[in-house]
Amino acid sequence: MTRVAGDGSIDRLTEIPEVLESRHVVGDDCWIFKVAVPDVGRLEEIPGSMNALPPRSSGPPR
User: Fold this and answer.
1) Which of 3, 19, 25, 54 has the most C-beta neighbours closer than 10 Å?
2) Secondary structure element (H or E) that encloses residue 50, with its range
3) In 3-state terms, what secondary structure has residue 20?
């Protein structure tokens, strides 16, 4: 599983049991998550779990 430094949001997402893998792609907040779920209902719940996280704190300008 990919782990990143920062505010810990991605680490918290990878603690969701169905999240098998996470990959950072181009862009500050662009991620791909591989999940394994028993049904479509649970698949629809996972983005809600992700959206429930607090927003990432803004850092210094790049």
Assistant:
1) 19
2) helix 40-51
3) strand
Place of tokens 């599983």: 1
Q: Which amino acid is at 23?
A: R
Q: Which of 29, 38, 36, 31 is nearest to 58 (CA)?
A: 29
Q: What's residue 2's pLDDT?
A: 43
The total of other beta-carbon atoms located within 10 Å of residue 10's CB is 23
Give the tokens for residue 23: 């990959």
What is each CA distance from 18 to 12, 58, 62, in whole angstroms? Answer: 12, 28, 34
The residue ranking higher by pLDDT, 39 or 14, is 39
d(CA 21, CA 1): 5
**Token pair of 60 as six digits:** 């210094």
